[in-house]
Amino acid sequence: MSRIVYVNGDYVPEQDAKVSVFDRGFLFADGVYEVTSVLDGKLIDFEGHAKRLERSLGELDMRAPVTMDELLDIHRELMARNELHEGMIYLQITRGADADRDFAFPDPDKVESSLVLFTQSKSIADSPAAKAGMKVISIEDQRWGRRDIKTVQLLYPSMGKMMAKAAGKDDAWMVEDGAVTEGTSNNAYIVKDGAIITRHLSNAILHGITRAAVLRFAREAQMKVEERPFTIAEAQDADEAFITSASTFVMPVVEVDGVALGDGTPGPVATRLREIYLEESRKTAI
Ligand code: PLP
Fold first, then answer.
1. pTM of the prediction?
2. Which of 167, 208, 268, 283 is deepest in the core (most CB within 10 A)?
3. Which parts of the chain fold into alpha helices (H)?
4. How far away, in angstroms, is 109 Cα from ligand 1 center?
5. What kind and span of H or E run contains 89?
6. Residues 34, 149: contact at Cβ < 8 Å?
7. Within its chain, how far is the Cα of 246 from the centroid?
8. What is the pLDDT of residues 209-245, one digit of tens each?
9. Residue of 173, 185, 205 to test ligand 1 pocket, by largest number of atoms within 8 Å of CB
């Protein structure tokens, strides 16, 4: 079955879903995005994603072509039209298609932002990767300095993923000034003597919606949380590690740069947090 994709006000079969070659998302990566997961036909953490989207747009002086309430309706309509039970909804807003290629932003009264959404059907709750755990390598963080804005300029993270693949591993953790920033498309955590350690919020990392929820659940469960930078050596000496993102929830990490963590299998804290996250986020899904 061909997917139905939302493009600037229309629901169209995927083969007809097209944007202009002059779209600034295509020419300048001048766009922002969100990925919201779907479980049991409901959206997980929609409000968090909508708020972060508004912030990303604000930081870039970009207008939203619809309101956040309308965006929720579009998500729901797209889920219904595609009979999406489990998976993700990808959303992208770009600064639209100007008449010519020009570095300067176009006048938003003349050029409207473009909005695209599509679904990806995938089994995400019952993931074999969560049982095996992931192996990561470390790479230098060579991204731009505003990683708190969720832009579509993802070439370096994509290259990082390829470096991990070439090394026979699953993902890369990026390192800046000796400390881990985050994974190519996820936030990174280690666990040492019962404490969950993850980099503090700043422009150096994306403020993960899953991160916020998981840290809240961890604190509610009386787990100790330390928001601070950590090194690869600390990670290799940790009892366990994990990552979080909307499309993977909580995913254990069992190896860092060739060094197995603990006994090389998913640790109890990551496993428990995954269970709690799935249980709690299902309760508040809309
Ligand atoms: N960090 C980066 C660089 C990401 O690309 C993502 C998700 O795409 C995350 C963290 C996790 O964010 P979230 O939990 O909101 O999906």
1. 0.96
2. 208
3. 24-28, 46-59, 68-81, 128-132, 155-166, 209-220, 232-236, 268-283
4. 31
5. strand 87-94
6. no
7. 5
8. 999 999 999 999 999 999 999 999 999 999 999 999 9
9. 185
Q: How far is CA 62 from the centre of its chain?
A: 20
Give the integer Cα–Cα distance in Å for 14 and 271: 37
Ligand 1 atom, smallest distance to 45 CA: 15
- Note whether 63 and 57 are within 8 A (CB): yes
Please say if the pLDDT value at position 1 is more than 90: no
Q: How far apart are CA 241 and CA 264, in angstroms?
A: 10
Segment 14-27, tens digit of pLDDT: 999 999 999 999 99
* Per-residue buried b or exposed e for 267-279, using 16+ beta carbons within 10 Å of the residue's own CB: bebbbebbebbbe
Rounded distance, CA 232 to CA 237, Å? 9
Pocket test for ligand 1, best of 186, 202, 249 (most atoms within 8 A of CB): 186
Can you spell out the DSSP letters for 261-281?
PTTSS--HHHHHHHHHHHHHH
Q: How far apart, in whole angstroms, are the C-alpha atoms of residue 133 and residue 170?
A: 9
Please name the residue that has the structure tokens 């997961």: 37
Strand, helix or coil for residue 79:
helix
